[in-house]
């Protein structure tokens, strides 16, 4: 069963490793909304991040926030470009721990353009 299909059809959140529901919701359609809405979502993400206590969740939240800032700075096509860059890194000679971190980031990025 396709997890994305299930989530869309029955309104059930099934997050991939590294994904956080509140942040996925803030990221969804981020590139399509106007700048003031992007800035509002960024502030909301920063507020939500401040109350997190779990280290892994804080790391994920930091990446969502970084991508939001980069989209504001570099433009709406940042997330797909970053995905390509990370996919190339994943194919290089890096440690397994680094690969895990990259895979989590790759799980988060589609939230910005779905």
The helix count comes to 6
Low-confidence stretches: none
Major sheet details? none
Q: Helical percent range?
A: 55-70%
Distance between termini? 19 Å
Query: Which band does the percent of strand residues land in?
Result: under 5%
Mean pLDDT: 88
Rounded Rg: 14 Å
The SSE order reads HHHHHH
Number of strands: 0
Structural class: mainly alpha
Overall body shape: globular
Polypeptide structure, described:
This protein has 114 residues and is mainly alpha-helical. The protein is 68% helix and 0% strand. It has six helices and no strands. Helix 2 packs antiparallel against helix 3 (35-50). It is globular. The two termini are 19 Å apart.
How are the SSEs placed, and which strands pair?
Layout: H1 3-10, H2 21-27, H3 35-50, H4 55-74, H5 78-90, H6 96-108
Features:
mainly alpha; 114 residues; globular; single chain
In a nutshell, what does this entry contain?
This protein is mainly α. It has helices at 3-10, 21-27, 35-50, 55-74, 78-90, 96-108.
């Amino acid at each position: 069963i396709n997890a994305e299909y299930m989530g869309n059809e029955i309104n059930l959140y099934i997050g991939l490793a590294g994904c956080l529901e509140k942040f996925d919701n803030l990221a969804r359609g981020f590139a399509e909304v106007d700048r003031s809405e992007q800035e509002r979502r960024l502030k909301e993400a920063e507020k939500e991040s401040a109350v997190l206590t779990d280290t892994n969740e804080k790391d994920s939240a930091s990446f969502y926030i970084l991508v939001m800032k980069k989209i504001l700075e570099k433009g709406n096509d940042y997330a797909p470009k970053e995905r390509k860059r990370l996919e190339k890194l994943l194919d290089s000679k890096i440690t397994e721990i680094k690969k895990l971190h990259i895979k989590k980031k790759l799980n988060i990025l589609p939230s910005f353009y779905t």
